[in-house]
Structure formats: structure tokens, C-alpha cells
Amino acid sequence: MPTEPAQTAPPPSRSSVRPLDAAPFVNPFDPAVQADPEPVFTELRARTSVARTPLGASVLRRDAVHRLLADPRLVSAVPFLARAQTGGQEIELLGETILAMDGVDHTRLRRLVARSFTPRAADRHRPTMSALANDLVDGFAPHGRCEFVPDFADHYPIEVMCEVLGVPRDDHSLFARWGDSLTYVLSLELGSHLDEVIRAADELGAYVDGLVDDRRITPRDDLVTDLVQASEDGDRLSAAELRTMIAALLFAGYDTTRNQLGHALFIFTHHPDQWSLLGERPELASQAVDEVMRLHGAVVGVPRISNAEVEVDGWLIPAGTVVFLSLASANRDDTFFDEPLRFDITANRGPHLTFGGGPHYCLGANLARAEMTEALQILSRRLPGLRLGGEVTWRADTGITGPTHLPLEFERT
């Protein structure tokens, strides 16, 4: 199995460094590229680590992406991209969230809440995940067909998140609506949905404040209580930090998991032997999650801003450049993965980068893994003979990819 490359590499001599303007150009927004990106990025990756894009630079090779995910000279581009789309208008909930922070503030927040997101903490919610998944499948398994997105993917992740947080069931629909709106924060469509996003952020913030106040008085066995009580050396999350932490969990966890499940079922319809194998061997579900996320990650890349000049494999990226770390390209790099385009849930591969890396490695990764593992175990057992039941449509670019319509057929159970 390949090992992780070193986090640092000696820089090339200054005389061998080339300017970004000389790098090969690719437009990832070109409809032709979006329709079939794999040949384009395979060819680019074979000859360069860095490509020039309409927004700045894109880093393509796995070793370079992995290294730069931990490079402090690259900081979150979320606030910059948001301001660029809103004419400089700030969204209070966004500016204070862990997704938009770097440096000591970011480190402090992660340190305070880390114990709430360990594998052990995630595992305690597996019975709830399993029960929710089975309840949803009960609604369509006897019919031999379903529309996977509204019948399962739209409900399962938000219900899991609400149960984990301790949100009353009567209010789950509110969180689903707020989650749908807040997903535009991580997209290039924020400007056209700004009023909707601000309204959702205000409503969610007010609701969370009430939830936090309740848990201060009446602690319960849920994640909100864990976050309220989280402390280290007397340091605790402030009311504003609690609000933004819970909001970040909602809009970074709900939509990504919803779309990742859609990708999973879609790819399995093209590999019925793998689906049958998973149904027979549920212990492969965790590996199946990783293989789906490697080859068909819902999050295709991570936007960063360079706060200093950065040399990447002989290319000089100027300070102030938007740098897109292409996780999708890195996860298909044949210098790291054997037969990277082959989908095999039994393969012993090196780690994928879809959860990111470095200081911004996905805080909820263990929770998301558990959630998808439980879902795939149940779906593969209860939906044998999985196949497409009609035309699949995909969402427009919002920074997260996934199907909007995924009609499925299977044997009645």
C-alpha cells in the first residue's frame, strides 16, 4: 500500500521556477469539461502539478494537494469568495464559523470540541443511524422502486444530525429547510440566494440560542450538551461560537452526506457485482464508503487563498491567488493509487483526500463515516438487484456535486 508522502519538500532553485501565467490553462466551468472532466484532468496531471484557471490556480497531483492542505500559507477562501459574491456584505454566521477561520482561533475551537468528534463519540450514535435508515427503507422496499433523493437522501442525514444534536423531531423539517439554504454559502451561487441565506442564518441562530440555553439548565445526552460543556483549562465556547459551530455542522455535514450517498448508489448501479458483494459482506461497508469517496467524492476540491508566494513543483503562485486544491484529481492520481479508475470495495488503497487534510481536516469525518457505513449496510441488504430506473439528473455547480433525481429499481423485499 502506498505511504503518505512527506509534508514538506525542498523548493526548486529560483532559476527553475516558472510563473503561473505560463501554466497550462483549464476552465473547469466549461460545459464540455464538466460533462467529461476525467480525460482533461488525466492529461493535465501527467504533465503538470499546477494549472491556471479563470479564478487563479488549480493543484492536481496527489502529493502536492496533500502537502498544501497543511501549508499555513494557504488559508480558507470561504470568506473571500462569499464577499466577492455579495459585494462585500458580511454574513455574520459565516465569518465566525470554523470553516472560515485559520491560525490560533481555528486551533482553539478544534481543541475545545475534539472529544465530541472521536470515533468512539460517533459510534454511540450508530443504533440511531441504523434505526432511521431502516425506517426510511421500510417506506419503499416493498414497492421495488424509489426516487432515492427525496425518499432517502433528503431525510437520512438531516434526521441523523438532528438526533445527534438533540433537536426535537417536530423541528427536523426546520433544520432541513435551513440546511438547504445554507448550502449556498459554500457555492458560487451565493449572490443570487443571499436573502435566503441570511434569513436562514438568522432563524437558525435564534433557534440554536434557545437550544443552548435549555441545555445549560437541563443537560442531556446529546451533542449540544457536549459542546456547551466542552472546556479546557477553564476555556469554553462562547454563545456566538456555539451558534456558529452548530451551524457549521449543519451546512457542512448535511448537504455533503446527502450528496455522497447519492453518488454511492449511482456508482453501485454500474457495479452490480460490488453491490451484491456488499450485501453478502456488510463488514466491507467502511471500505466501500472510502472507495466511493475516493472515486466519486461529493466535494471535488478545496478553495484556498495564498497569503504569501507559494512554490509548487516548479510553479510560482503569487500571494493573493485563489488556489483550488483538486481533491477529485488527487484521488485519481495513478502515481499513488493502482488502477485509480477501477471501483473495488475490496481494494487495499492508500487514504483518499475527500475529507481534506491538515488543520481543516473535516471535523465531522468520523460521524460522516459512521453515518454512511450504517446506511450502506442496510441499503445493500434490503435493496438486492439494484439498478437504475430512469434518467439521472445532477445539480448545478454549488461547490458540492450530487444527483437531484436518482430513480432506482430493485427486488421487492
General description of the model:
- The chain has 413 residues and is of the alpha+beta class.
- The protein has one domain (14-409): Orthogonal Bundle (Cytochrome p450), CATH 1.10.630.
- It has helices at 31-35, 37-47, 62-68, 78-86, 92-95, 103-113, 119-123, 126-138, 148-153, 156-165, 172-182, 194-217, 223-229, 239-269, 272-280, 285-295, 327-330, 365-382; strands spanning 18-19, 50-52, 56-59, 74-76, 145-147, 231-232, 235-236, 301-306, 310-312, 315-317, 322-326, 387-388, 393-394, 403-405, 407-409.
- The strands form five sheets. It has a five-stranded mixed sheet with strand order 2-3-11-8-4.
- The radius of gyration is 21 Å and the shape is globular.
- The two termini are 39 Å apart.
